[in-house]
Amino acid sequence: MESGVIPISNWQLALSVVLLLLAGVVSAALQLGLLRSLLWGGVRTFLQLTLIGYALTYIFAWNNPWVILLAVLFMTAVATQTATHRSHSVPRTQYPRALAFLSLLASTMLVGVIVVGLIIGPEPWYSARVAIPIFGMLLGNSMNGIALSLERLYSSVNAHLPEVEELLALGATPWEAVRPSVKEAVRAGMTPTINSLMVTGLVSLPGMMTGQILGGADPRVAVRYQVVVMFMIAAAVALGCLLLVGLSYRRLFTDDEYLIPELRQSRNGSTE
Amino acid sequence: MVVSGRVGSGDVLFVHGRSGAGKTTLLRILARLQQREAGDLQLAGIPDSQIPATRWRRQVHYSAQRPVAFAGSVRENIVIPYSLASYRGEPPPTAGEVEQALTQLLLDQAVLAQDARTLSGGELARVALLRAVLARPRVLLLDEPTGALDALARQAVLEFLRRWLEEAAAERALVIVSHLEDDASPFSNVTWLELEGR
To answer: Would you call the peptide bond into A124 cis, given omega within 30 degrees of 0 as the criterion?
Structure first.
């Protein structure tokens, strides 16, 4: 290929399995009990990536905006599933899947369309080769952000239940009563992204930039792309967390503004 | 458990019963902090379904057995209600009002500048009561208000509550949960409610 990618042949790929086996040897020697997960993980990595490789080849060749939209919706659904996966703080009845899906979709769409359409501006503007990886990176990061936010919202309200109830008892609205926890939750979701803004390029080279450099791109071009990517991720994570927490705090309360009983069950304040 | 009763203006409902009888639950239901299984709840003849929870809780204030200190000074703690939307436009208590109340509760003026989280149990109980009263409720629901207090402070708190009630007897009422029957003695119109539990 003219871009300077060095292709990896089948036997070279097979050679990389040796590396996975090395990890397996460590697990077996120390009896970590990870051997099965490691092998299963290895098989899944190979299968999933091979499948996605073929799928992307078709999607890129097709380059139909509706197919791209469908792919993005599918990716959002998977990200939602992962983000709202079982957690200790969120009561079983409370997974706000629909809200998480909406928040992810809204924040990624807004930021993604700006980045693909305005900043990178490929021809046509919805080019799958640009749109799919961009939306993938947005969703992957937002997913972790909203998962952290959601977890923190519930754990913070649980930890501060006496304060929340005192505010309610003084006549606070549900929003006013949990506002400190809402702030804490958005902060928790955004912190990893802000940290990565601080250290990027110092501790490690970001994956996308590494990929472009391995692919033969001029590092200065790769850096420009990476800056755009970092900023867009920051925007998407902030919007996603804010949307989700803003939409889901109300689920901590019943329609007539009682705190949901699932929270009070773990209460340790009262005596009776 | 079935309980029925009414508190008239200027009256005190004194709730008594052994531990686990549901005294706290009763107060929390009255304050609309906990859902009841059945029954009716009215404030001045208006059913609770017609009063939004936020407005109800402002008027019927539940003061928890374990008082809550928010981050910040005591002064910041007692004006917290006035940062809420339902108090918008209402003037916060004047320095004079606060000063007078502190004296009645045997608290030093210097306590205002102190971090609320460093107060002793007895001090915090009185600061929480002060916050509740300065929030201008119609009905105060007090859960063991004298539990953490020594004899002197206990007398001061009961006297403070008696004055609060009599200041505007036509529009105020008090519900007290206490294991000390003596806590009822300063008040003139006391109704007793003995909870048997389940």
So the answer is: yes
Tokens of A223: 């850096």
- State the best of B33, B48, B58 to mutate against chain A, taking most chain A CBs within 10 Å: B33
Q: How far apart are CA B122 and CA A168, in angstroms?
A: 23
Specify the 3-state DSSP secondary structure of A253. Answer: strand
Give the Cα separation of A242 and A182 in Å (integer). 9
| E-only strand ranges, chain A | none
pLDDT, position A54: 94
| Longest alpha-carbon distance in chain B | 47
- Which H or E element spans position B60? strand B60-63
- Asked if A169 lies within 8 A of B57 by C-beta distance, the reply is yes
Distance CA A246, CA B165 (A): 41
139-168 in chain A: CB under 8 A from chain B: 162-163, 165-168
Give the list of residues 6+ apart from residue A6 with CB closer than 8 angstroms, or none. none
pTM: 0.83
Per-residue pLDDT reduced to its tens digit, B78-117: 999 999 999 999 999 999 999 999 999 999 999 999 999 9
Structure token digits, residue A4: 């300077």
What tens digit of pLDDT does each residue of B113-142 get?
999 999 999 999 999 999 999 999 999 999
Q: Reduced to 3 states, what is the DSSP secondary structure of residue B51?
A: coil
**Interatomic CA distance for residues B187 and B11, integer angstroms:** 8
- CA–CA gap between residue A96 and residue A150 (Å, rounded): 9
Sign of torsion over alpha carbons A76, A81, A87, A89? positive
Supply the pLDDT for residue A268.
Answer: 44
- How much is the average pLDDT of A110-127? 91
The 10s digit of each residue's pLDDT in B7-61 is 888 899 999 888 888 899 999 999 999 998 888 898 988 999 999 999 999 999 9
Nearest CA in chain A to B23: A272
